[in-house]
Description:
The chain is of the alpha/beta class. The protein has two domains: about 1-15 and about 65-179, Rossmann fold; about 15-65, no CATH class. Helices cover about 35% and strands about 15% of the residues. It has six helices and six strands, in the order βαααβαββαββα. Helix 1 crosses helix 2 (about 45-60) and helix 3 (about 70-80) packs parallel to helix 6 (about 170-179). The model has no long low-confidence stretch (mean pLDDT about 95).
Amino acid sequence: xxxxxxxxxxxxxxxxxxxxxxxxxxxxxxxxxxxxxxxxxxxxxxxxxxxxxxxxxxxxxxxxxxxxxxxxxxxxxxxxxxxxxxxxxxxxxxxxxxxxxxxxxxxxxxxxxxxxxxxxxxxxxxxxxxxxxxxxxxxxxxxxxxxxxxxxxxxxxxxxxxxxxxxxxxxxxxxxxxx
Length: 179
């Protein structure tokens, strides 16, 4: 079994770091205000500025919190089920920071795969994808692949029957074992 595990929004709560920065230069936004994947439009934030700022957050990778406690033991348990690869969409310049973050948090994984754009993940050869992006989830489904959606405020509108939703990563282990 090959499992593609996303970083931003699934393992690393990078949006919290971005909000800490953004809230010093713009009107305050809370995580629960982010109800769409492209939320920056609603808040009149330039897309380029958002992605540049998000990438900058990774330079200070030690300040990025994990999405939940015990990710180290959960990813270890996930690795007992099959091959777990980190599959992430990002600027190449942040890869080393992400790898440092993964090591720092003792995240178990076999390979690190970085793609330019999130929906490109659907073209990769994995049995199950664990992701938080509604765009990626729908694209993965279009490719007739299994997706487990890590619940975040920006993906609550997704209600496809084939998508398995989880609120913590350990739930993914149970869902994978049932398949």
